[in-house]
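Hi support team,

I'm opening this ticket because the web form for multi-chain structure prediction keeps timing out on my end. I have pasted the exact lines I submitted so you can reproduce it. The total is 871 residues across three entries, so I didn't expect it to be a heavy job. Is there a limit I'm missing, or should I split the entries? Thanks in advance, R.K.
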Amino acid sequence: ENRFDRSRMAPKTPIKNEPVDLSKQKGCTPERNPITPVKLVDRPQPDPWTPTANLKMLVSAASPDMRDREKKKELFRPIENSEQSDTPDALQYGMVDDSTADEFEKQRPSRKQKSLGLLCQKFLARYPSYPLSTEKTTISLDEVASILGVERRRIYDIVNVLESLHLVSRVAKNQYCWHGRHNLGQTLKTLQEAGELQYGELMTFFQHKEQDLEYKFVERKKDSQDRSLLDFPEPDCTSASANSRKDKSLRIMSQKFVMLFLVSKTKIVTLDIAAKILIEETQETVDYSKFKTKVRRLYDIANVLTSLGLIKKVHVTEERGRKPAFKWIGPVEFPSKTDEPRGHSPTPDPLPGTQRGACAPYQIYTTGKQKFTRHASFSSTQPCEGARRKVSSEPSSPRQERQDDYCSKMINLAAVCRQKIEEDTRDPSITSPPPLHPVLGDSDFCVNPLPQAVFPVVQADVPNLSLANGVSGPQAPHPSIPAASKTENGKPTLLPNQSFLCFPSSSLFMLCGSLQENNLCETLPTPEDMGNRSGKAQATVPPAACQKRSSHKCASPSAPVDDEEPAAKKQTMEQSDVPLSLVVPKKPYESPVAETTPGNGCTSAVHLEAFHLDFASPVAPEAADKESTQEQEKWFQNKDPDEPSPGKENISQENAHQPFLPQYLYVQPTAGLSSFNFLFPANQAPGAVSLAASQLPSLSVPCVVVPSAALASFPLICSPTITSPLSPVPDGSFSAAASMNFSMSGLASTTPVFIGTTAVVTPKVSPASAVDPQQPAHPALHLSPVLARACGAVKLDSPACMGHPVTLLKLQQPSSTPLTPKSIRPARHEAFFKTPGSLGNPVAWKKNEGSQTRNASSVQRRLEISSTSPD
DNA sequence: CGATCCCGCCACATT
DNA sequence: AATGTGGCGGGATCG
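Hello R.K., no limit was hit. The queue was backed up. Here is the completed structure from your submission:
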């Protein structure tokens, strides 16, 4: 074992020296057999008998540790010694001097020299990044371990991470196959997709800053973990079997960790957040210790990823202090975009051209899915879950628990996020994250490729798409969508009355519920317009859209959300397309609504096959007040999932009251990647929209917003109206109120959705102004926070978020009841949704449960206004 | 003193 | 039972 190297060094621990050096120099001494048995020993020791040896002995004597080890090993193995040569003098000298030791670096082999990162670099150096496809290089763990002079255990650490990225795959017992980075791009893409499904929302929140929560996590997790892992079937190496084991958490963790980066807009992930997110497993309690352990593992993973040139360490400074974090510097894949300028990474982007190209956002999904392979275990969990969560359908299924967990988790996160978000503090230190605009601007995530051009086109298309199927608009992108069209009822379409718009570029759809008045405009999309807004984009509205339903109004400008992005982006980049749009209808226009909505009021039900909604987690926008946040947070923690949320109730009630609701859709701008977003009109009659009618739970969602993919994932927001005919969710069930999951059918990129029951984001209202009054430009959502607020939209964004705005719109809920987050617990729920800012005063939020009036929420109002101007 | 993370015990899986 | 794997966390270092 220790070859004497260490001995030479300091007597104490300090230096164990690394064999490494030696090994290199030697070149690996072959002699030793790769055989496992010997741990360290790679190189034979120098001769025992040599003077050096003696020294060593002495040294070892000095340090107990050493001694012990040697003992273990047998001090000498004469046998091997053959290599004396290698050991060389250096050692000897070193020993002698002790301090300086050898010439090389042996100098202080401090801990750093033994770091996993360094070790990994050495490991990687042995193999070509892009090996010829034909040959495969096999790696013998023992051999490598010995060559590198480390214990095998360390090699496992490296290999496991590499395996998670498919740079290597295990072929047999001590054997791994080296694949290189050829598939890295694909792998990352897959991870990103998966990540969006799983973490999109969360990350959105957290993004840059987060506060630390205590380590208490609320989550209650129960059942299994979902692990998402992907196993990719790789070409040759499919691992099928491999997985059986308990999962290797390191691998899974590694993938998840990478996912977080890929999903994050800022590309910066702090360790604590990652740890929190990754601790999914069962724990309810959060143990601090567990957290600590997780962090430790993350360091291990981070070291390897750093060696791969995929991430680098940075610090995020928050008010509280600086936190360690890592920034993704690897390729950003798909979209073509690679990475940031910064490019430290030595490694070139691996992305294969082809893949990238491919990357049209939509497509990705499909492919992605296919790719994933999950473990059995896996399958059961997550993805499914999403699916499962049917909202309404089963109240209490086991799953629910999960949901709870999920929800709770989300909540926590949200809370956290909020806090952080609130300010965007960006640290200077952090390089990356440009705040809003800049960032947005960046093409980074935006996918340029698609878009703009499309835009127009789309519109044209729209009609087609539109309604016909219901949702289908762009079917292409989403599988799910197509299905959507039917309703259970048989109603054919989604929304009969609705109109909807698509925005091509981003893939957005708008649906308008019934609108009352007649005119709706759809809006448009141009970003520019939007940006400007105020004017309202209406003008811009594409005719086509209009077509659909006769009347439409346009609301667009108002929608804060839209604006933001687009604006931002435009400015920055034009290309990106981010259209936003919104529509708001006021009333249902026709019967449909009325009819449909009867009891519920309105809810439109949407069924998406794949979708599942979760309600529940509220997102917390950043509330104005932080305080509230915390409270909320706590609240959440405490709260039971089951607990009916006031909001919910409200909603229902409200819904009842109001027949009409807002309807909107939002689609995400980003072209890219992922996801698509939609908004559904709130009002729809129940059932109105159903996407695949699968048995699955359908949800009815009044409105949903989905974030675009690009990054993020944004949560969807649903209007309170949720009740769906279909699934009645009892209040009791937590789910209903609490959360629904929405999952896209498989793929949808952005899975996460938040639906706020109460949602809320109302922008501030200026009644008069209605929509955009003032600030047209702002993007409410994410761009500038300020603006956003102004707008009333809530934005979650933190800087991190920036990209995405998260907004919750409150749709329907009329009474928005302002809740004060703080004040009331019950309220809280809502609170999240609301943005204080938006309303104008945070305080405003009050819970209002029953009380709420029906007044439309401000948001609505706005919308209304814009559209009809009821007010 | 907090951030890192090396080290290797030890349990579980595989052979 | 031996060996392969790898979870895990104490505690040493680093900064």
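A quick check on our side: Residues 13-14, 36-37, 110-112, 141, 152-153, 156-157, 160, 173-174, 245-246, 248-250, 289, 292-293, 296-297 of chain A lie near DNA strand C (CB under 10 Å from a C1'). Let us know if the file doesn't open in your viewer.
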